[in-house]
Amino acid sequence: MHGKLTCPFCDYETEVVPQPAECPHCGTPLRYECDLAGAAPGDLHGRGVWRYRMFLPDVEPVSLGEGGTPLVPSLRLGEEMGVQLSFKLEGANPTGSFKDRGASVLVSVLAALGARKVADDSSGNAGAALAAYAARAGLGAVLFVPAHASEKKLSQIQAYGAELVRVPGPRPRATEAAQAACRQKEDLAYASHNESPYFVAGLETVAYEIAEELGWRAPDHLVVPVGGGGLFLGIVYGFLKLLALGWIAKTPRVHVAQAAACAPIVRAFERGLAAPEPVSVGKTMAEGVCIPAPPRGREILAALRDVQGTAVSVPEGEIALAQKELAQKEGIYIEPTSAVAIAALRRLIEQGAIPPGEEVVVPLTGSGLKSGLL
Ligand SMILES: [Zn+2]
User: Fold this and answer.
1) Ligand 1 mean position to 15 CA, how many Å?
2) Which residues form the domain of 288?
């Protein structure tokens, strides 16, 4: 397999391995890199995530046609807010969220490295995506979920035949249980959507698609909902790779959107900290971004400063309003986690972080069909 795993903060690098790995010097989760010297847009073929396979691990794809999602111009909200706004409709992916991009690449790598069974801790979109791609690859899947996770969310995961392990206690217990099981059982690969370098590599394709659709150009801004930060990092790294290749002339400013009930990145950004401090969590409808201690927190803050982004949090009322507005004014039905970015966009414009008339793309991370209207 070409490519290697590298540390975002120091010179450490190692060969491609199945389990998520941390840098032995600084403890940071590693990321996937490969040699792109001489690559040109003319080398791209096919559609969707695997159109960009020169950027991805060199493996046989486990695919359901993920990626290639519509970039749709706003007809009303953008004009109301005074910006040129477009939406990337990630709910159009096979299981209804952007996580399919990461799951497709991660499961492809694990299958190529000989995994028979994969495990993750998620009761939401990532769990559903992993279960679907494991089924597609003919692999077993075990999902460790909080005992209090809603049955509605679990039904999609179960439909794909994944085994569920209900873990009592707060959300981080499910992560610990998944990690412990993978350490004990040799045949179980930890397919962590928050830590695996291959998952983030798959999410970089959001940046490639946007840039290509705009004629190899970046918009002025993106606003991204951030929990574990995989999508945010994927988008930033994707645009930075295109800039390094000379395929685009500048990177966009990429902004972080979080729910006020759980905003560790926003708090650390406002205080000028290098790494987030654990926060206590309030109740939020945006369950997909409720990660109080993101494993890639330090990396998110560094990337945010690299692309001159800013970070804002939004209260529950504004999230619910944004979800409704998008459905009624644009005809787009999204889950509350996606609505966090729309509510944040309004605040970023009010604060002057996004000046009038500039071009903004918001990835709408998942379909409202999964969550219902709040
Ligand atoms: Zn390091």
Assistant:
1) 15
2) 71-96+198-370
Q: Cα separation of 124 and 144, whole Å?
A: 11
- CATH number for the domain spanning 144: value is 3.40.50.1100
Q: Position of tokens 């390094």?
A: 244
- Given 177, 195, 213, the domain boundary residue is 195
User: From residue 133, how far is each of 17, 108, 176, 205, 242 by CA, in Å?
Assistant: 19, 9, 23, 17, 28
CB of 354 closer than 8 Å to CB of 348: yes
> Which residues make up the environment of ion ligand 1, defined by Cβ < 5 Å?
7, 9-10, 12, 23, 25-26
pTM of the full predicted structure? 0.96
| Ranges assigned E (strand) in the chain | 4-6, 13-14, 31-33, 71-73, 84-89, 117-121, 140-146, 163-167, 188-190, 221-225, 253-259, 311-314, 359-364
The rounded radius of gyration (Å) of the Cα atoms in the chain is 19
If you measure from the C-alpha of residue 196 to the centroid of ligand 1, how many angstroms do you get, rounded to a whole number?
16
Provide the domain count of the chain: 2
Whether 81 and 150 share a structural domain? no
Q: State in Å: Cα 22 to ligand 1 middle.
A: 8
Cα of 302 from ligand 1 centre, angstroms: 13
Q: How far is the CA of 277 from the centre of ligand 1 (A)?
A: 19
111 in the same domain as 145: yes
Q: At 84, is the pLDDT very low, low, confident or very high (cuts 50, 70, 90)?
A: very high
Whether residues 297 and 333 fall in one domain? yes
Q: What is the per-residue pLDDT across 313-325, written as a single tens digit (0 to 9) for each? A: 999 999 999 999 9
What is the structure's pLDDT at 212? 98
374 pLDDT above the threshold of 80: no
Residue 132 has pLDDT above 80, yes or no: yes
Dig out the tokens for 119 from the structure. 């495990």
Ligand 1 centroid distance, CA of 300 (Å):
15
**pLDDT band for position 130 (50/70/90)?**
very high
